[in-house]
Write a structure and sequence with these properties.
single chain, about 260 residues, seven-stranded antiparallel β-sheet, six-stranded antiparallel β-sheet
Length: about 260
């Protein structure tokens, strides 16, 4: 299986601390050595870094873990290949345009009979079940809401319905964002934590790195981090239940079900 990393914040925030932990799971403390990627939303644009090499060994991953790129929404992934060869085109996250916005997606799991899912105008570039499912979700959205997106609650419920459907075909944990909202769906494992004032110390579980968030933030900051498994040892992470979905905006949970 792969591992996911996401972030939603109310101010541009870097994810260096969390990514340092995830990077170790890419071939060092974890078996996810078949590529990695991370996407940073900046305004209407999205800045994506990918490598088919293990993140633990990747110089690009080291750059990302050390360089404080600020973003409101981040979607990241380390891969353990099960469908599709080890190659850059099969490395998450994947991005497509819909309704004039970039949508970015990363998946943890394995789907059966995924080639039966229709793609519509969204076509796969690689050969993974993950990208095929992403194209299916966007095709269903575009078919149902051709001109513009519906209201937030309606959109959330429809994406959750599609996720429930995909869950019936295997393991389907995912992160999906349009740059404003971050949608999270749990099939087996997904955890989240919201950090707000008063901020304190945090210690990574995969590498001997800690941080005092009170020195890095303002009292008004709200930052939520989502990960397959908790990244720190001294904080309380919320475990999502199978079949549960959450929607975050500006660091706050605004929908769940």
């Amino acid at each position: 299986m792969c591992e996911l990393l996401g972030m939603s914040a109310n101010v541009p925030t870097d994810i260096c601390f969390s990514f340092k932990g995830l990077r170790e799971r890419g071939g060092n403390t974890g078996p996810h050595k078949d590529g990695w990627g991370i996407a940073f939303y900046q305004g209407k644009g999205v800045n994506t870094f990918k490598d088919a090499q293990a993140s633990h060994l990747s110089e690009v991953a080291k750059l990302v873990s050390d360089y404080p790129m600020k973003s409101d929404v981040v979607v990241g992934h380390v891969r353990q290949a099960n469908r599709g060869r080890i190659a850059l085109e099969n490395t998450h996250p994947f991005t497509r345009e819909l309704w004039g916005r970039y949508w970015t997606y990363a998946h943890n799991g394995q789907l059966n009979d995924y080639k039966s899912l229709r793609q519509g105008r969204f076509k796969t570039v690689g050969t993974t079940d993950s990208e095929h499912a992403f194209c299916f979700i966007l095709s269903e959205l575009a078919a149902r809401y051709a001109e513009k997106p519906p209201a937030r609650k309606q959109l959330f419920r429809f994406i959750k319905k599609l996720s429930d459907q995909l869950k019936q075909q295997g393991v389907f944990n995912l992160l999906l964002s349009d740059g404003d909202y971050l949608f999270c769906y749990c099939s087996t494992k997904l955890h989240w934590i919201t950090r707000r004032a008063p901020f304190g110390m945090a210690q990574l579980s995969d590498v001997d790195v800690d941080i005092d968030f009170s020195q890095e933030t303002t009292p008004d900051d709200v930052v939520t981090v989502i990960a397959t498994l908790p990244l720190t040892t001294n904080e309380h992470w919320h475990a999502m239940k199978p079949g549960e979905a959450c929607l975050f905006k500006a660091g706050e949970k605004v929908e769940f079900g």
